[in-house]
UniProtKB/TrEMBL annotation:
Transmembrane segments: none
An example Gene Ontology molecular-function term: long-chain fatty acyl-CoA hydrolase activity
Protein name: HotDog ACOT-type domain-containing protein
GO biological process, one term: acyl-CoA metabolic process
Lineage of origin: Eukaryota, Fungi, Fungi incertae sedis, Mucoromycota, Mucoromycotina
Amino acid sequence: MPSSLYDSAFESVRSMWIRSVMFVTQPVFQRLLPDPYTEAGNVRVDKKPAHVSRVTMTEIVSPAQCNMMGYAYAGTILSWIDIAAGIAAKRHAVSPSVTRSVDDVAFLHPVKVGDIVTIQASVNKSWKTSMEVGVKVEAESPLSHERFFVAHCYLSFVALSPRPEAKTHLGRILSGFQTIAVPELLPTSPMEIKRFEMAETRRQARFKQKKPDHSQIRELMREWSQGLREKADADAPIKRHPGYFASSEQSSPVSEGISDVEEENIILRARKRGRRFSQDPRMLQQIKERPMDYTFAEVVELVMPQHANTLKITFGGQIMAWMEICAIASANRLAKAYLLTASIDSLNFIASSGVGDVVTVRSLVSRSFHSSMEVYVSVEAENVLTGETKFTNDGFFTVTAVDGENVPVIIPKVIPQTEIGMDLYEGALERRQKRLNQREELVNLVNASQNCVPVIHLDADE
């Protein structure tokens, strides 16, 4: 038997032995390790009222956080949301907490440079080691003093044991990131009781939600990243997957075989229904369609200490900010226009990254509609010391193309060329309809419950 097989078998047995020993001895060693909170003279309690965890954070949007139009990046807002929610979770658990998941987020109003953004967060309910935190984002214009609703979302956090950093290898194994029990939440006001009851419903819905397997498209993008993509001739016709012709093309005003006159008629009918499209000559798309792989983009970031929490685990909000940058890069390959992020789908963080890791974000446009597009984004983290690469999370971003006056711009179509791309392309319609339904419910709720500036629809395809 070759020596490599002996080494592999030895490592497998050794790994199983270490895991068995840790399973038996770790709870004992965890109790022996000091707790910084109790050592400071505090006492951990079993129950806490909801108002103790409440957080209000105020930020002013600076030019460095905005795009060319002067609108704040959605990634910046998401990062603030994650920080505010993390503070609320840490206040309740009295322990470091990490983001486990983020529910769907819809941005109902753009935030401009100079606006004052207020983020309110509080724990809605706690379970054994996890918590749900609700966050509401509002903004205020410093000139008109008008307040408007921006977004709201729910985040799930897991509390980790606040153990001191170990000095030895055995200590690092035994004092690794372990979950810790959190206090029970006690709602007092009618609103807190309502949030408490609805949190359990949302939690069960998260458990029942089936996460589709996108491992094949991630592997395909990994190959593209390594330069294995075919270099197509710019003048050659685009290769299309056979199923593309049978797929519904009702989402785009430009489809296969449509003449310029028919295209103008489609746009004219859309305008009669109340839709207005940009007439800016700089925004007219000369290319009517692009292959899906043309929209591929990649962003590589090194996790620095300012990107991580006290446990040196990367902030979930920072990951989402990098994801948005990559999504905008893909969208810009398709549409030559100003781009705004309208929404993101729910994200589940399968694994974490830490300080010193290299985070690779890859994206492509999965489908385009009249003036908006769905962008698929995946994230991987690489430990540069061990060479280990792990998938952390993925999700879908909705990006809208507009001109300088915030008027929607008609964008080219995305053409799937492979079976994997076709599956992603066909599933986009169902995901889009779900987003539109959720957005409509949120808009009606906000307009009925608040006396604020009317909601602006960032998704031009509504």
